[in-house]
């Protein structure tokens, strides 16, 4: 499997927005809104940085890392969103995407600063919490009730490297 993880480029916006709409079908109400969402996040670099996974040059997943509370000496970052195209799930792509993109994000945007904390949120019914626990050692610490049509779990990785 020849999987490449790299920072997104402007030309990737339409394909990312397609996978975004596939992964999160109720987040926006039109194709145009999905595109606009990705476009404005892309423009918020270096606070928001997307990475993509390409398999044989086909874009099959994306991840968005963001920095919280300023560009702090002890950085607080959030894995804001991850999506892998449906037909490619369960093959370890999400795991590789998190690990490699975080290495790139740290190398290109965080260093020489250190990461104090990684925040992750997901619906408490979403199996992504297993992924976050397994790959980042994240643990749930609180629940936001009644948001996005359910309850949202907030997880933290308090010991990163
Ligand atoms: C969450 C998501 C990115 C995982 O991507 P993936 O490529 O399937 O992940 P992996 O194959 O690397 O799975 C890694 C681990 O995650 C967990 N996991 C992922 N999907 C799971 C599922 N459907 N059921 C149970 N565990 C699951 C498992 O612990 C798995 O480890 P294992 O294979 O050793 O059991 C993908 O399912 C997805 O895009 N979902 C829709 C969007 C979404 O919900 N994103 C997360 C919220 S932002």
Question: Which properties best describe this structure?
Answer:
4 helices, single chain, binds coenzyme A, 161 residues, alpha+beta, seven-stranded mixed sheet, 32% helix
Q: What fraction, in percent, of the residue positions are helical? A: 25-40%
Individual helix count: 4
CATH level-4 homologous superfamily = Gcn5-related N-acetyltransferase (GNAT)
Architecture in CATH? 3-Layer(aba) Sandwich
- What is the element string, with H for helices and E for strands? EHHEEEHEHEE
Structural class: alpha+beta
Describe the biggest sheet?
7 strands, mixed
Question: What's the alpha carbon Rg, rounded to whole Å?
Answer: 15 Å
Cα shape? globular
Low-confidence segments, ≥5 residues, pLDDT <50? none
- The tally of domains stands at 1
Q: Hey, roughly how much beta strand do the residues contain? A: 35-45%
Whole-number mean pLDDT? 96
Gist of the model:
This protein has 161 residues and is an alpha+beta fold. The chain has helices spanning 13-23, 31-43, 93-110, 128-136, and strands at 3-7, 48-55, 58-68, 74-84, 114-123, 139-147, 150-157. 28% of the residues are buried.
Q: What do you see in this structure?
A:
- Helices cover 32% and strands 39% of the residues.
- It has helices at 13-23, 31-43, 93-110, 128-136; strands spanning 3-7, 48-55, 58-68, 74-84, 114-123, 139-147, 150-157.
- Strands 1-2-3-4-5-7-6 form a 7-stranded mixed beta sheet, with helices on both faces.
- Helix 1 (13-23) packs across helix 2 (31-43).
- The longest helix has 18 residues, at 93-110.
- It is globular and about 35 Å long.
- The chain binds coenzyme A.
- Coenzyme A binds next to strand 4, helix 3 and helix 4.
